[in-house]
């Protein structure tokens, strides 16, 4: 029989399921980030799978593997002194004339809508080791970022 008339199984056309990609580099976390990661693992472990479809259960297990890996590789960073921009600092800055404040945190804790950016983001990388009063080049523009103040993130 010609291959053109062979019935292919439905399985052959399914998209492969890959693991959730891990961000490159170290898995630095703040105290808050470590707590949030633990809570995520606990919530996923406590999820009731009895009423889930097979696909939903697979998705849950995949997400649980991701968060367990992130918890196992988490590196709790010491609280910085606030003298210079570093992981775990709150930074007030001016960009293009607008004053803003960000918190420099780990990849999994980052939430730009909440002002939390990853230490691996372009803006955070430009700011690292800068001190209050310094002006930095960013986005191809000279002296576009001015560091106004720096303090350690203080969260319970």
UniProtKB/TrEMBL annotation:
Keywords: Coiled coil, Elongation factor, Protein biosynthesis. Residues 43-77 form a coiled coil. It comes from the Bacteria. One of its GO terms (biological process) is regulation of DNA-templated transcription elongation. Residues 83-151 form the Transcription elongation factor GreA/GreB C-terminal domain. PANTHER family: TRANSCRIPTION ELONGATION FACTOR GREA (PTHR30437:SF4). This is Transcription elongation factor. The lineage of its organism: Bacteria, Pseudomonadati, Pseudomonadota, Alphaproteobacteria, Sphingomonadales.
């Amino acid at each position: 029989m010609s291959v053109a008339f062979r019935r292919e199984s439905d399985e052959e056309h399914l998209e492969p399921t890959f693991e959730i990609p891990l961000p490159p580099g170290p898995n630095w976390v703040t105290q808050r980030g470590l707590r949030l990661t633990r809570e995520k693992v606990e919530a996923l472990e406590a999820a009731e799978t009895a009423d889930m479809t097979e696909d939903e259960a697979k998705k849950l297990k995949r997400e649980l593997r991701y968060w367990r890996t992130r918890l196992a590789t988490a590196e709790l960073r010491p609280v910085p002194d606030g003298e210079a921009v570093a992981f775990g600092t709150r930074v007030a800055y001016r960009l293009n004339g607008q004053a803003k404040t960000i918190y420099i945190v780990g990849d999994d804790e980052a939430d730009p809508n909440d002002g939390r950016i990853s230490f691996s983001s372009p803006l955070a990388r430009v700011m690292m080791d800068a001190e209050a009063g310094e002006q930095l080049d960013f986005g191809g523009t000279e002296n576009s970022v001015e560091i106004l103040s720096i303090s350690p993130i203080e969260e319970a």
